[in-house]
Amino acid sequence: MLQLALIGLLGGLITGISPCILPVLPVIFLSGGVQGARPGSAASGGAPRDKTSDGGSTSGGEVAASGNLATAVERESEAKAKRRAGWRPYLVILGLVISFSTFTLVGSFLLTLVNLPQDLLRWIGLVVLVLIGLGLIFDRFQHILEKPFSWIPQRRVGTENGGLVLGLALGVVYVPCAGPVLAAIAVAGATGQVGPETIVLTLTFALGAAIPLLVFALAGRRVAERVKAFRKNQRKIRIAGGIMMIALAIGLVFNLPQLLQKLVPDYTSSLQEQVQDNDAVKKALDLGGLVNDQNKDLDKCSNGGTSLESCGTAPDIKGIQEWFNTPGNQAVNLKDLKGKVVLVDFWAYSCINCQRSVPHLTQWYSKYKDSGLEIIGVHSPEYAFEKETRNVMSGAQNLGITYPVAIDNNLSTWTNYRNRYWPAHYLIDADGTVRHIKFGEGGYQTTEKLIRELLQQAKPSVQLPAPVEASDDGPIAGATTPETYLGVTKKVNYGGTEPYRAGDGVYSAPSAQPADSFALTGSWNLGTQSIAPTAAGSSISLNYHAKQVYIVVSGEGSLDVIRDGKASTVAVSGTPTLYKIVDDSEIREGSLEVRVPQGIQAYSFTFG
After folding, report:
1. For residues 478 and 400, what is the distance between their CA atoms, to the nearest angstrom?
2. Rounded Cα distance, 65 and 164, in Å
3. Backbone dihedral region for residue 516 (phi beyond 0: left; psi -120 to 50: alpha; all else: beta)
4. I need a labelling partner for 468 at 20 to 30 A (CA). Which of 86, 177, 203, 573 fits?
5. How many other β-carbons are positioned within 10 Å of the β-carbon of residue 585?
C-alpha cells in the first residue's frame, strides 16, 4: 500500500507541474493566494494604531485603560481575521482535492444511479465559478450569495468558507493530463472496482497534483503581503480575481484553454515516460488489466518500436455503446476489415495529449484511406462528462475527425486491449495481426513509415502519396507550417537529401519531399543568414500548410512562383523584405516552386 501511495504521489506531482495546470493558475494565484493575504501582515498596513484622548472629561488613567482595552480587543479581532484569511489558500486546495477525488472515482456512478446527465457536475462547477466571480466583482451580489450561510456564526463565505467552495468548484472542472496513474483510477471508477488501493491511489494522486498548486497559491499570498501595490488596490484585485474565474468558466465551455495547451510543449513527457515504462509501477498499478486469449501476446510489441513486430491477433472491439462516422452509424467489426491496414486509436476528446495527436491521424486518414488504411477512434473517457455522446461528437467535429468512432464508456475495449494510455495507437496489418504499438504523443514519422510498409505489403502495386511527417515529433499535420529559415545557422524544415552546409553546392529535389519542408534544386551558395543561386535554373520547392505564404528576399530581379501548374511573377527590389506569394481563403495543404535568379538572396518563408 505504501508503494502505491508513493506512485500516486509521484504521478500527481508530475501532473501538477505539467501544462495541464496552466488554465487554473491565474485563479489559484489571485483568488486562492492574493485574497488569502493576512490582515496585519507587513504589507497589509496592520501596524498597531495609537489611541489619543478625544478631549473629553475622562481622566487620563481612564483614557489609558480604555484605550488599552480597545487596542487589545482590536488586536484580538485582527488576529482572528488574520488566522481566518490565512486558511484560504489551504481550503481552496483542500476543496479541489476533495471534489476531484470524489467525482473522479464515484461521480459517474452516482449520476447513473439517479439517471442524470454525465456532464451535470461539470456544468454545476462552471456555474459556481461564475457565481463566485460575480460575487467578487459586485459586493451586493456577494451579500445575496452569503445569505444562505448567515446562520454560521462569525464566518464569511467570501473568505475561508468561500475558499473551500471555490476549491470544490475547481475540482469538478479540473481536467489534468492523462498518465498511467490517472488511467488506473479512471478504469477503476468506470468499471466499479473501487477498493482501498484505488482510494489510496486517488487521494495521493490528487494530493501530489495539489502540492504545486498550493505552492503557487502561497506564493500569491506572499506577494500580496509584501508588495505595497496589492494593499492599495485590493478592490481591483478582487475584481480581477472575479473576472479570471468567469473567464476560466467561459473558456472551459468553449475549450479555449486547450488552444493554449496545444501551443505549449509537454515538458513533463520524459518524466511521464519514466513512470509509465517502469515495470514496478505497472505491476503495482495492475495496469495490464485481465490477460485473456485475445490480448496475451500484446506484450511482444515494444512501445514505439522502429520496425514492424508481431504481437498476436488484434483483440475484438467490444462493449461499445454507440458508433458514429460509419454508414448508418453501424458497428464496425475488425474481422470485416481483413485486407485493410487498421489503426486503432484510444483517445478522449478533452485530453490535451490526444488533441495534439489527432491532427496527425486525420492527415494520415486523408492521405491513405484510398490506399487501404482504416482508422478507428475508440473513445475511452477519463471523466464522467466525456461519456456524453453529444460532447464526443462535438469534440470529434472540432478536431476534424471523419473516421469511425466507437463510444467505449465502460472501457470494455480499453480493457480488452490491456490499454493504459491516452492516446494509444495499435497498428494492425491486413491479416489482423498487431504489428506496432505507440503509447502517448510522438513517433509520428515512424508510425507513418510503418503504415506505408503495411499498405505496400497488403498491395504491392499500390501507389502511395508523399509522406506527410517530417519527424517523429515534428509539426502537427494540417496546421500552419512553422517559420522556415534558409540560412545554415538557422536552418529549419529542410527536406532535401544532400547535406545542408555553408558554401557552394549542387542540389536536387528529393523524390518524396516531406510535408512542411523545403528543398533546393540547382547550384546554390549557402550563407549563415541567406542563400543565393550561383547558376540559372536554381529553385526552391516548398510543401506547406497555410492560408498565406510569404518569402523574405533581397536584391534585384523577379521570382517565378509555380503553383498548381500556374506561374506568377514577383518583382524584387532593395533590402530584405516580405513578399506574399500565396493568398488563399483558408488553410490548405499545398506545394510550390520558387525559381530564383542570380542577384537575389533568399532568407526565409513565413506563413499565415
Report:
1. 10
2. 40
3. left
4. 177
5. 6
Q: Is 235 exposed, middle or buried (0-12, 13-18, 19+ CB in 10 A)?
A: exposed
DSSP structure string for 292-341: -TTTTTGGGS-BT-SS-----BPPP--S-SEEESSGGG----GGGGTTSE
User: Taking a C-beta distance cutoff of 8 angstroms, is the pair 33, 270 a contact?
Assistant: no
C-alpha angle 377-382-384 in degrees, rounded to nearest 5: 110
CA dihedral in degrees (49, 54, 57, 62; nearest 10)?
0
Q: How far is 390 from 404, CA to CA, in rounded Å?
A: 15
What letter does residue 103 receive in the DSSP assignment? I
Strand order from edge to edge, sheet including 405-407: 322-324, 405-407, 373-379, 341-347, 424-428, 434-439
Burial of 286 (0-12, 13-18, 19+ CB in 10 A): middle
Percent with pLDDT over 70 in the chain: 72
Identify the CA nearest to 163 among candidates 154, 151, 155: 155
DSSP letters, 123-154, are HHHHHHHHHHHHHHH-HHHHHHHHGGGTTSTT
Residue 499 and residue 375: Cα distance in Å, rounded?
A: 36
- pTM (2 d.p.): 0.56
Regarding beta strands 322-324 and 405-407, do their DSSP bridges make them parallel or antiparallel, or are they unpaired?
A: antiparallel
The sign one gets for the Cα dihedral 274, 276, 278, 281 is positive
pLDDT digits (tens, 9 = 90+) for 236-281: 877 887 888 788 788 777 766 666 655 566 666 666 666 655 555 5
| H or E element that contains 461 | none
User: CB count, 10 Å around CB of 310?
Assistant: 12
Q: Kindly report the three-state secondary structure assignment for every residue of 219-266.
A: HHHHHHHHCHHHHHCHHHHHHHHHHHHHHHHHHHHCCHHHHHHHHCCC
User: What nine digits make up the cell of 121?
Assistant: 457536475
Cell numbers 488553410: residue: 587
Burial class of residue 73, CB neighbours in 10 A (0-12, 13-18, 19+): exposed
DSSP 483: P
> How many residues make up the chain in this entry?
608
What is the Cα 297 distance to its own chain's centre?
Answer: 32
How many angstroms separate the CA atoms of 153 and 104, rounded? Answer: 33
Q: How far is CA 181 from the centre of its chain?
A: 17
